[in-house]
Write a structure and sequence with these properties.
five-stranded antiparallel sheet; 292 residues; signal; mainly beta; 15 strands; ten-stranded antiparallel sheet
Length: 292
C-alpha cells in the first residue's frame, strides 16, 4: 500500500484510493517502477516532484511512477477538506527528473489504472487507463494508454484530442435517442492488443439508425496512434469480435450482454433425426438380403 504525499494544509489519511490503485496483471516494463513513499531511497524523487508541482492546484499526490528520466505523476484535488473522497478529481502529469519540466497530460474523475498492454510488438508495454469526465453525473468514460515517449523524454497519453481520450461509454446520447454500445481491448494473433468500439444510435421513427464501428491501434512502423472507421466486412468482423471478446483484456470490455450482441448471434442449426421411413421401404421388417 502506498502512502499519499500531502500538502501541509491537507493532511490526508495515508490510504490510496482503490479507484486509482493499479489493477495490473501483465508485467510492467523492466525500466518502470512505482515509488514507495515510505522508502528513504525514494524521498529524493518525492521531493523533486513536489517542487515541480509548486503553483499547481492539487490536494494530494497519489502515485509516482518512474521510467528513465521522467516521472508519471497522479494528483487528486478535493474541493474542501469536508468533501467526500469519491468526488475527488485527478490530474496526470509528466515530471522531468533532469530539469523539473512539468507537462500536463489529462484531467478527469474516477481514474482506473487497468493493465499493461502490448500495443506494438517489439515495444514496451503501456499502462491502460479508464476515467470519467465528471462525478455525480451522466458521465462519459474514456480510454487511453500512458507511455514513456522516447523522442520527447516525457510521459504521454494515447489518442488524446481536445484534452480527452477515446470515448468508450457515453451515458447521455440525447433526448429521444437510444444508445447501445460495446467496446473491448483485444489481442490479435501476434499478441498485439487493440481497442474496438461499436456504437448504435436508434432515433425511433425520426430518422434511420446509425452504426459506428472503430478500431484503435498503433502503426507498427511509426508507433503513431491510428483511428479507423470500419465499413463492410471489416465492420462485421469487428462486431463479431467485440461480442465474443474471447481474447479480451479483463476489465477492458463492456456491452457484450447488450441487445447488439444478443441480436448478432448466428443461429446454430442441428440436424434433426429422420423419423419417416425411406421411400423404398415396402413394409420390410428386416434389411434386404437377410434370411426371412
Amino acid at each position: 500500500m502506498r502512502v499519499v504525499l500531502c500538502r501541509p494544509a491537507y493532511v490526508l489519511m495515508a490510504v490510496v484510493l482503490a479507484a486509482i490503485t493499479p489493477l495490473c496483471t501483465a508485467q510492467a516494463p523492466d525500466t518502470f517502477r512505482w515509488i514507495d513513499f515510505h522508502a528513504q531511497s525514494d524521498q529524493d524523487v518525492a521531493v523533486w516532484v513536489t517542487r515541480a508541482l509548486d503553483g499547481q492546484k492539487w490536494t494530494a499526490i497519489r502515485e509516482i511512477g518512474v521510467q528513465y528520466d521522467a516521472a508519471l505523476v497522479i494528483t487528486t484535488t478535493r474541493a474542501t477538506p469536508q468533501s467526500a473522497t469519491n468526488r475527488d478529481t485527478f490530474s496526470i502529469w509528466s515530471v522531468s527528473l533532469s530539469n523539473r519540466m512539468l507537462t500536463h497530460i489529462a484531467d478527469g474523475a474516477n481514474l482506473r489504472l487497468m493493465d499493461w498492454l502490448l500495443l506494438n510488438v517489439g515495444q514496451g508495454r503501456e499502462l491502460a487507463a479508464l476515467y470519467d469526465d465528471c462525478t455525480d453525473c451522466q458521465a462519459t468514460t474514456y480510454f487511453t494508454a500512458l507511455h514513456y515517449d522516447l523522442r520527447q523524454h516525457t510521459w504521454a497519453a494515447r489518442w488524446m484530442q481536445g484534452g480527452k481520450a477515446v470515448p468508450v461509454w457515453v451515458s447521455n446520447a440525447g433526448v429521444g435517442v437510444t444508445h447501445t454500445q460495446v467496446f473491448a481491448v483485444m489481442a490479435d494473433e501476434n499478441g498485439r492488443e487493440t481497442l474496438g468500439t461499436w456504437s448504435h444510435l436508434d432515433y425511433g421513427k425520426t430518422k434511420t439508425a446509425e452504426d459506428a464501428v472503430y478500431r484503435y491501434d498503433l502503426d507498427p512502423q511509426s508507433d503513431v496512434e491510428r483511428t479507423q472507421l470500419l465499413f463492410g466486412r471489416d465492420a462485421t468482423s469487428m462486431k463479431d469480435r467485440l461480442c465474443r471478446a474471447q481474447d479480451g483484456v479483463p476489465g477492458l470490455s463492456r456491452g457484450q450482454d447488450s441487445s447488439l450482441c444478443l441480436g448478432s448471434e448466428k443461429p446454430h442449426y442441428e440436424r434433426k433425426p429422420v423419423t419417416s421411413p425411406p421411400a423404398n421401404n415396402q413394409g420390410q421388417s428386416r434389411p434386404p438380403g437377410s434370411k426371412q
